[in-house]
Amino acid sequence: MNRALFAQVIFLAVLGLVIAAGIGFLTNSIAGDSIGLSATPLSAGRDLAPAEAKRGADRRQEQRQRRQDRRQQQRERRLNRLKDAQTTTTTVPTTTVPTTTVPTTTGDDNSGSGSSSSGSGSDDFDDD
Fold first, then answer.
1. String of b and e for 96-107 (b: at least 16 CB within 10 Å)?
2. Ramachandran area for residue 91 (φ above 0: left; ψ -120 to 50: alpha; else beta)
3. pLDDT at 49
4. Is pLDDT at 127 greater than 60 in this prediction?
């Protein structure tokens, strides 16, 4: 490569960088965005939050409070039930069961044991 051609390539490369930087600065000025960190603190954006997001924290606090109230009511109901159960006595009605009398008989109940005329067994035993 000769010197003239090398100088032209370097010139065109530097010219391309200058043109790219110029286009970047022009688009930045048109868009109005700053490059880098801003000097304003992070808390400055809180005022920019929509009202709905602000209400979300209030809504969560209200839900938390309602939950606590419900739990407290449930505790009170349980305590009241326990107190009622301790103070009231349950009476079980007494029922009388009718009793039946079974007549008792004396004598043979015809059970079959010891009878020689039953027809079963052996005839080894004599009645004499």
1. eeeeeeeeeeee
2. beta
3. 62
4. no
